[in-house]
Design goal:
The protein has 720 residues and is of the alpha+beta class. The protein is 33% helix and 23% strand.
Length: 720
């Protein structure tokens, strides 16, 4: 008797004395007949990521042969959103290698996973299971090797707090009882999973361990052994089903949620991979990571953003991907490094008999440890579409063999430090620069007080593969604006940008930006880098109390201040502007006085050294007296669309209305209009200058910003 087969927890393997890959229909029938199995369940994953079940009572052998051979009809439109009700019928056909005895059924029941087929008897191309099959085959066709995978399934068990043997917060890693409360539950899960055919490596309690509102939240992990990738997906799918069922039996709540609450460990679904050929692991060569492994890693670096579509399907997925939580935030890889996207774990490459060192009575022996080396993708979590995720990883690794610069890409994205440590920012910068060349990691958040964001249009020339633009528009109330700002930053935090540049409107209280950035979870996602304030070198000598307050609030925290139009201003005007700045700070009881922080050059004249200084200027956490701006008396914005007015006439009319007190206190007008030749012109008007310059593209809109604006009066100038 084959000892490996006889010790297998899967009752079919032990009984039939053959591995699951060799199961036949005759084997299944024989097992059912000789083990008094009374029912058969067909199980299959649907679009919601959960296993569905179809129950059969075995009437006789002929009926049993019929369902095993022909399968059954199911309603595809109720299983997948991409199937329409008008043509929804699908076949489900059992895959014999997946058969197992249901550990939860009171009536002896055999369960089998199924594949989907269409009306023509062909595999359903769009089904997740068949997508993975095609991806696995394509990998082998291109490389001549087999793609294998294994998952690390993390989950939380939630139950009422007994108050006994309280665990140390966030220190649950490999904790033993009684401090870990659900070790017995986990081992029972592991036993049941092994009975279903799951090839388990080990299980343990994980870092997350905390109490909240009278409940214990304890994180656990079950890690599997590497198997062919299609088998790996089946095992993970069944394992999640087992853990949920056993949790229900025990009265425990079980969740695979990526993040439960801020500051506590999230649950991932790390996937280890190895590439096999003729039964040998190809991840190592001469004791070091092979070219084969590095090509696969390069493919994952290149396609990393796409993998998140299947591995991180829930918005809360991105609450987990924050620094200092052993979760990746940047596209890079490294050895034994949990701050990177792809980790190369220890692989027993030292070639030392550690068993003999730990056990002096043992004689030196040889064990082929090369089979153990894997690489680990760390971004996925429990929300993942298992089949699509593993298909995506197979495609990404295959891609590494299809691109010419794979080894160069692997070299450029390799790090040997913790990228979340301050002292390693230079290394992170090198990665960011490379990714900029690839174009995918800079976000700009543009805010405009106007209901239509004119400044956004002025940034369009920056937009490209290496730069994405987002905007907040509208002169809404403060709370609405805070909500919009927060929502945008959360959305941008999910995009994996290395840097987000925020350009707030010149008439918003900047303090609200700082307040939002210090809120959870943004305080975990973002770190304030530099605060740069741009001030008109020819600042008006007299401003309203509200305007002076906003001026002070925007300058108080600045690491550096740039004077715009400095080349047009006299030395006296510049000094008056600086004096005005400091006077505004004094009025709000701010102790700071500005001098060396001020760049007395126009932005166009700044040298590389000036920019280096600006980008290292940081910010100052300064205190000042807060002014609650009266929204009714504060700043207004009006916008006018599709004006029937020429560029020259618009310039003339804007000059007139800015001098008319009946229009209110106008201090800024901007927008776009076409000239007589049909070309776009950009309007920019302040109290002392009106410019009209050609621009590549625009939108027929004029924005008027000021205090106590009178729309009817302004409209007369612009429409008459």
């Amino acid at each position: 008797m084959n000892q490996e087969l006889s010790m297998n927890a899967n009752k079919l393997v032990a009984f039939l004395q053959k591995p699951t890959s060799e199961f036949t229909k005759a084997d299944i029938i024989s097992f059912i007949q000789q083990n008094d199995i009374r029912m058969v369940n067909f199980m299959y994953p649907a679009g919601d990521g959960r296993l569905k079940t179809l129950n059969f009572v075995i009437n006789n052998q002929a009926y049993l042969e019929a369902i095993l051979t022909c399968g059954e009809r199911v309603d595809g439109s109720s299983l997948f959103s991409f199937i329409e009700a008008g043509s929804s019928d699908l076949y489900v056909i059992p895959r014999f290698r997946t058969a197992f005895v249901d550990p939860f059924a009171e009536i002896p029941t055999l369960s089998i996973l199924c594949s989907f087929f269409n009306k023509d008897g062909e595999p359903l191309e769009s089904s997740p299971e068949y997508t993975l099959h095609k991806a696995s085959k394509a990998f082998t066709d291109v490389t001549g090797m087999e793609f294998q995978a294994m998952g690390e399934l993390e989950y939380y068990v939630i139950a009422p707090d007994t108050g006994m043997f309280e665990a140390t917060d966030q220190r649950g890693y490999h904790e033993s009882g009684p401090y870990a409360k659900f070790n017995e539950f986990r081992t029972q899960c592991m036993f049941y999973i092994s009975q279903t055919g799951g090839q388990i490596k080990y299980g343990h309690s994980e870092v997350g361990n905390f109490t909240l509102e009278g409940y214990i939240y304890e994180q656990n992990e079950i890690e599997f052994l590497p198997v062919p990738v299609e088998q790996a997906a089946d095992q993970l799918m069944i394992a999640k089903w087992v853990i949920r069922n056993l949790g229900f039996k025990y009265g425990y709540n079980v969740t695979y949620a990526p993040k439960i609450t801020a500051g506590k460990a999230g649950s991932g679904l790390h996937v280890h991979m190895r590439i096999m050929q003729d039964g040998k692991n190809q991840m190592l060569k001469d004791g070091i990571l092979s070219e084969t492994a590095r090509k696969a890693i390069a493919g994952m670096m290149e396609l990393a953003p796409s993998i998140t579509a299947f591995g991180n399907t829930n918005p809360t997925s991105y609450f987990r991907l924050v620094p200092h939580q052993e979760a990746p935030t940047n596209v890079c890889w490294g050895d034994r490094n949990r701050s990177v996207l792809v980790r190369v774990p220890l692989g027993w490459a030292a070639r030392k008999d550690m068993c003999t060192l730990a056990n002096p009575l043992e004689t030196e022996s040889y064990f082929d440890t090369t089979q153990k080396q894997t690489v680990e993708m760390r971004s996925p979590d429990g929300s993942a579409d298992l089949y699509q995720l593993l298909a995506g990883l197979a495609v990404a690794c295959r891609h590494g063999f299809e691109i010419e610069n794979a080894l160069e890409l692997a070299e450029k994205t390799y790090v040997n430090v913790n990228i979340h440590q301050k002292e390693n920012e230079d290394k992170l910068h090198e990665i960011a620069k490379y990714l900029l060349d690839k174009g995918m990691n800079i976000g700009i958040l543009e805010n405009d007080f106007g209901a239509v964001n004119v400044d956004m249009l002025l940034l369009q020339d920056l937009m490209g593969d290496n730069c994405e633009l987002e905007m907040i528009s509208g002169g809404c109330d403060k709370e609405t604006h805070r909500r919009r700002f927060r929502t945008k930053l959360i959305a941008m935090g999910m995009c994996g940008y290395d840097r987000v540049i925020v350009e707030p409107s010149g008439i918003y209280d900047v303090d609200e930006f700082f307040d939002v950035l210090h809120d959870e979870p943004l305080d975990k996602w973002y770190e304030i880098g530099n605060v740069i304030t741009i001030v008109d070198a020819k600042l008006e000598p007299e401003l309203s109390e509200e305007a002076d307050y906003l001026l002070a609030s925007e300058a108080a925290n600045a690491g550096s201040i740039i004077l715009s139009r400095a080349e047009e201003a006299t030395k006296e005007q510049i000094e008056n502007t600086i004096e005005h700045l400091n006077r505004a700070l004094e009025q709000v009881q701010c102790k700071r006085r500005l001098d060396r922080e001020i760049m007395r050059k126009d932005g166009a004249e700044l040298s590389k050294e000036n920019f280096d200084k600006i980008l290292k200027s940081g910010y100052v956490a300064e205190n000042y007296r807060k002014m609650e701006l009266d929204e009714k008396k504060g700043f207004d914005s009006l916008y006018f669309m599709e004006l029937k007015i020429s560029a020259d006439e618009l310039k003339t009319q804007v000059a007139k209305m800015m001098q008319d007190p009946e229009c209110g206190g106008i201090f800024r007008v901007k927008g776009f209009v076409k000239d007589d030749a049909g070309s776009w012109m950009q309007l920019n008007a302040t109290g002392h200058e009106i410019s009209m310059k050609p621009i590549g593209d625009g939108q027929e809109v004029v924005i008027v910003i000021g205090e106590q604006l009178k729309e009817d009066c302004i409209r007369k100038y612009l429409e008459n």
